[in-house]
Every structure is written in C-alpha cells, then in structure tokens.
Amino acid sequence: MVNITEKIKEIEEEMRRTQKNKATEYHLGLLKGKLARLRAQLLEPGPGAGGGGGTGFDVSKSGDARIALVGFPSVGKSTFLSKITKTKSEVAAYAFTTLTAIPGVLEYGGAEIQILDLPGIIEGAAEGKGRGRQVISAAKTSDLIVMVLDATKKAEQRSLLEQELYAVGIRLNKEPPNIYLKPKKAGGMKITFQTPPKSLDEKMLYNILRDYKMLNCEVLVRDENATVDDFIDTIMSAHRKYIKCLYVYNKIDSISLPHLNDLAREPQTCVMSCELDLGVDDVVERCWEELRLIRVYTKRKGVDPDFGEALIVRSGSTIEDVCDQVHRTLKETFKYALVWGASARHVPQRVGLAHVVADEDVVSIVAK
Ligand SMILES: Nc1nc2c(ncn2[C@@H]2O[C@H](COP(=O)(O)OP(=O)(O)OP(=O)(O)O)[C@@H](O)[C@H]2O)c(=O)[nH]1
Ligand SMILES: [K+]
Ligand SMILES: [Mg+2]
C-alpha cells in the first residue's frame, strides 16, 4: 500500500518532470489540485496519516493576540522570547534546545500579547519530520508569525521555511483570493469571470472541479490576476490560513555591514542582535504595527476617560465589538455611542453599533 507521503512525492516528481507550456498547463493544474488534497489528508489525524496528527501544542490562548516564533534550530527564538518577556526559555548552542511550546507575555501599547516560543523546525517538517507538524499547527493559530532567521546562514533558509508553511496551507502576507465558490445541489457548473483572467480559463476550472467531484457549483472569479493556485486555495479554503509574517534576521553582530544592509532592505524584514541588544525594540514595535490592534478608551458621562486602561480590539472592529469587550450583555441596553478621535467625522460623533473604531478613539456608551 502506498502511503500519502509517497503519493505526494510521486506527484511532486511528476510536476518537476513536466515541462511548463500551453499543452501541459491543464495537466499541471490537475496535479496541483491532487497535491492539495493529499496534503490536507496528511494533516488529518487517523489511519494512513502517517505519524503524529496535526494538533498543536497544548497552550491555551491568552491576552489580546498571539505571535508564533518560527525558525530553524538555534536561530535565537528562545533568546528573543527571554529578552522581550519575563519568561525564561532555555537557550543553548545546540539544536532542538526547545522541545515544546513555551508561552510568554509581551506587554505593549496597553495590550498583552502572547508570544509562543516553538521548537526549531527542519526541512520536511510539513511531512512530519521532527516536531514539525506540531510546530506548524501551533503557528497556524497565531495572529502573526515572526520568522526568526540567522543572518549568518544562507539565503535559502527563508524560502525553505516558507515552503514548509505553504505545504500545510499557511499563506503568508496574502489576502484570500477574490474568487466566489458556492457548491449547489443541482444545475451543473456555472463559471463566470468578471474580467478575463490572464492565467485561468473555464476548461482549467472545470477540470479541477470535476476532479474534486464538485459537479454542481457556482464560481465567480473577480480577480484578473487569479492563478490556478488561488483557485485551489478557494476550493480548500477550510484548510487555508492567511497570516501576516514578519521576517526577523537575528545575530547581525556576526555579519558584514554590506550584508546587513542587503538584509535590512528585504520587504517585511527587521534585523537584530539579541546578544548586543541591537534592534530588538524595533522588532517589538514592528510586531505591534503588524498586529494592527486598536486601543479604545471608554468614558463615562461627565468624567474624563481613563487613559490608563485601554480596551484592545482587532482592526476593523465596530462599536458592537467594543461593547462585547466591556460586557456580554451591554449590547442589549445600547442606545447610541459618542465617539471622539480619528474615526469620528466631528467630535463627539453620535454613532450606532456598526460604526468602525480607530486606534485611540474615546468611546462613551449611552444605555437605554
Ligand atoms: N552571535 C549571536 N548569537 C546569538 C544571538 N542570539 C542568540 N544567540 C545564540 O544562538 C544560540 C541559540 O540560541 P537559542 O535561543 O537557543 O535558539 P533557538 O532558536 O531557540 O534554538 P532551538 O530551541 O534549539 O530551536 C545560543 O548559543 C545563543 O546564545 C545573537 O544575537 N548573536
Ligand atoms: K538552540
Ligand atoms: Mg529555543
């Protein structure tokens, strides 16, 4: 019996052998679809899944957001955690010093951010090497992935890690594809393109949908730049996670200045030396920005707002979310809210539950 890992290898091999051209693109599209299905199967616990399910480490979420530290062994993940939180995670020069998820709390901007120090991962992690799958599953639960890289190591380390995360359905710094897909009970396939896409056509989508046994469905491709990978991600959306990633090169104390300059110029990238305490504060500030958390100060009528204690909500949150943070039942007696700050057109602006708040808004909730 061929196991899933072997089947994945076979398909990857076939994809490598197949020349990319107009004649083979349908076949390659189908192979990509099959690969995505097998990889999802690999993450499901149960017989045939081949060693260790896809569950993360048993650390409960706490605080306002979670950041996962992901990287190869000995890049300095634990050193970083120990620097920015009160938690001391074991640091040593040998690989796999950290064997489980170690949570720490970073207090910043009035928020409590949970930082997960994770064991190092290696190539093949997505297929279950080392604690790879557990580490990646834990990363999947985070609001931000900080990919810790060793500035003294080869450039490939970054793309190797990205591939491992990609293989388990994590999409870094990417929005979900702008493709609408709805399974139907009957009526066949209805495929529509808003504007003709550059690298997709009806036959391609039809073939893949048929291979997924989705014979009745409605598809609307809204993005002309959508690719076949985007389409497969749409079909597999239950297994996909779109997460922001910040790339952090540690150990810059051990590289040349020109090399440092090159690394610092890469997109979404920070550089630091935990050893010399260089750039660490900048990394923390950048993490805060990437999380896009919003601080809202509540105010009672006739009393100054309490700037000492902020309510923390996600970007895009509404007055309704703010109410839910204050108290579970506050919404029920809600009449209107007064808002001072960046989200208000005039101050104070009288708003309803659907009003979207901005960072550092002051909100006064008026009950019925
Ligand atoms: N030169 C230099 N060494 C560092 C720096 N930060 C950490 N190290 C060293 O790198 C080694 C590994 O650090 P750890 O924090 O254990 O690395 P890790 O990524 O947690 O490693 P694992 O848990 O094994 O995956 C230790 O010897 C640290 O002292 C740095 O900024 N510069
Ligand atoms: K180590
Ligand atoms: Mg460690």
What tags apply to this protein structure?
368 residues, alpha/beta, Rossmann fold, Ubiquitin-like (UB roll), five-stranded mixed sheet, 29% helix, globular, binds guanosine-5'-triphosphate, binds potassium ion, binds magnesium ion, GTP1-OBG_CS, Beta-grasp_dom_sf, GTP binding, GTP-binding
Distance between the termini: 67 Å
- Please identify, by name, the CATH architecture of the largest domain: 3-Layer(aba) Sandwich
Q: Indicate the overall shape.
A: globular
Number of helices: 10
Q: Provide the succession of SSEs.
A: HHEHEEHEHEEEHEHEHEHEEHEEE
Determine the oligomeric state from the structure: single chain
Estimate the strand proportion. 15-25%
DSSP summary, beta strand count: 15
> Could you say what the CATH topology of the largest domain is called?
Rossmann fold
| Small-molecule binders | guanosine-5'-triphosphate, potassium ion, magnesium ion
According to CATH, the homologous superfamily of the largest domain is P-loop containing nucleotide triphosphate hydrolases
What class, by secondary structure content? alpha/beta
Q: What's the number of structural domains?
A: 3
